[in-house]
Automatic annotation (TrEMBL):
Protein name: Putative aliphatic sulfonates-binding protein
Keyword terms of this UniProt record: Signal, Transport
Signal peptide: 1-21
CDD domains, A to Z: PBP2_SsuA_like_3
Phylogenetic lineage: Bacteria, Pseudomonadati, Pseudomonadota, Betaproteobacteria, Nitrosomonadales
Gene source species: Methyloversatilis universalis (strain ATCC BAA-1314 / DSM 25237 / JCM 13912 / CCUG 52030 / FAM5)
Length: 472
């Protein structure tokens, strides 16, 4: 009995010793859940446990224990503070706060790496400027002398400065710019305490969707690229390159899943963040407002360089950070290779998530993305697609006559090529009676004049679309 007890004790001691000797590796990731274009580097990876799927389990990692920690932030600045303090290993943020992340690390005698893009727009869509819903202002040109709020040092701040400079204004004298976080700006817009507000994904579309703001400027008008991406502590990446590649593989998987089932995962994002699925789909669905893309296209490299220079001019940093020293694409290239994907081919691919569908009203294949419209019906898991706004609105009339409720109608700006919330858009007919959608009233007016048509708002186009559809 004594020998048996001794052996059992030795076995227990050996097991405890082996366990204590096994390495525990922390993987601490900072996310921005409400910045929904970070979803494939944060929220979806976390909720679907995709990182666990790709973490290395052999070789030097055979007996490793992983301590995966997730922390959510509402903006990039506090996330950066935690990274610099070595409390986080990874982070996701946009180009402007990402530049401050790189500069802050250098100031602390450290280094961070911009690993990859997660989602963005090479023409700048996604960021925008809104006004209170009851405002008479229809364009940036009408904001002279007004008070405009924006989260300072954000990608939206850069957008606002470009938009005002394009007017030839002195931003120190011709407007008053104040700093305001999204949650504060929402209340200010509702109370008419500010004349306009510039913000990043998704707030320039979320506020209009919720009915208390109207978008008067989209980043696509600037034709200046913007993106959100993933960063990592450089020392961490050097020590654990396989884990960095695993994280990026998880992002690639998250991208594949939401591309295949955008409605399903738009609902998941809504459940976690409270940001309505309709707004998530606006960005992540086919022909979305931005494109999910992990590759470092030249436009995104330039966007990062511009943000670094702009923030230096704003005296937000004085480091010698450059886009070339900040970006390191070896990890994302390795992730693509491990996933059986061609990174160089993706670099050349500028296509949005394609829409391969038939018109829900006519059954004919949809061929022209410039006139696509979409309707999401309450209780239906999938969005309906249409070749034209007139077909969509004709079907909306039937849907509502059947006692069903429409969650949202999407249209596409004829000139900018961006997806719009139809109830926020302007429409113009042409001589043939076809309807085209536009973000701005001036653009709709110009189209109507050039094509012998007329301008319609959302209410008017709903009333006429059924007749126009039957005449096609």
């Amino acid at each position: 009995m004594k020998i048996t007890s001794l052996l059992a004790g030795l076995a227990l001691a050996f097991t405890a010793g082996a366990a204590s000797a096994a390495e525990t590796i922390r993987i601490a990731i900072g996310t921005q859940d409400t910045t929904i274009n970070c979803a494939t580097g944060g929220l979806l990876v976390r909720e679907l446990k995709l990182l666990e799927k790709y973490l290395p389990r052999d070789g030097r990692y055979k007996d490793v224990q992983y301590d995966i920690q997730w922390r959510n932030f509402t903006s990039g600045a506090p996330l950066t503070n935690e990274m610099v303090a070595d409390k986080l290993d990874f982070g996701a943020m946009a180009d402007f706060p990402g530049s401050l992340n790189g500069a802050a690390h250098l100031k602390a005698g450290k280094k961070s790496i911009f690993l990859s893009v997660l989602s963005g727009s090479t023409i700048g869509s996604g960021n925008g400027i809104v006004v209170p819903s009851g405002s008479a202002v229809q364009s940036v040109a009408e904001l002279k002398g007004k008070q405009i709020s924006v989260p300072f040092a954000s990608t939206a701040h850069g957008l606002l400065l470009r938009a005002l400079n394009a007017q030839g204004w002195d931003v120190e004298r011709d407007v008053t710019i104040v700093t305001q976080a999204p949650e504060v700006a929402g209340s200010a817009l509702q109370a008419n305490k500010i004349d306009a507000h510039a913000n990043f994904v998704p707030f320039a579309d979320l506020f209009p969707y919720r009915g208390f703001a109207r978008k008067i400027y989209d980043g696509a008008q600037s034709n200046a690229a913007t993106f959100h991406g993933a960063l990592v502590n450089a020392d961490y990446a050097k020590k654990y390159p396989e884990i960095v590649v695993a994280y990026l593989r998880a992002s690639i998987e998250a991208d594949r899943l939401i591309a295949a089932e955008p409605e399903k995962y738009s609902e998941l994002i809504a459940k976690v963040t409270g940001i309505e699925a309709e707004v998530n789909y606006l960005f992540h669905g086919p022909l979305g407002l931005q494109t999910r893309d992990l590759s470092w296209k030249p436009e995104y490299r330039q966007a990062l360089a511009t943000s670094i220079d702009t923030l230096r001019l704003l005296k937000r940093h004085d480091s010698d950070l450059t886009a070339d020293t900040f970006i390191d694409d070896q990890y994302v290239r390795a992730a693509f290779k491990a996933a059986g994907l061609d990174y160089d081919a993706q670099l050349k691919n500028y296509d949005k998530l394609a829409l391969k569908a038939k018109d829900a009203l006519t059954g004919k294949a949809i061929e022209d993305p410039k006139r696509v419209a979409q309707v999401w019906v309450q209780g239906e898991p999938l969005v309906r697609h249409y070749a034209s706004p007139e077909n969509a609105f004709a079907d909306v009339k039937k849907i509502e006559a059947a006692g069903k409720k429409v969650r949202v109608v999407f249209a596409h700006d004829r000139n900018l090529g961006i997806k719009l919330l139809a109830n926020q858009a302007w429409f113009a007919t042409d001589a043939k009676g076809q309807i085209n959608a536009f973000l701005l009233k001036d653009a709709a007016t110009a189209w109507a004049q050039a094509n012998k048509g007329k301008v319609l708002d959302f209410a008017a186009v709903r009333g006429q679309a059924a007749t126009l559809a039957s005449a096609q």
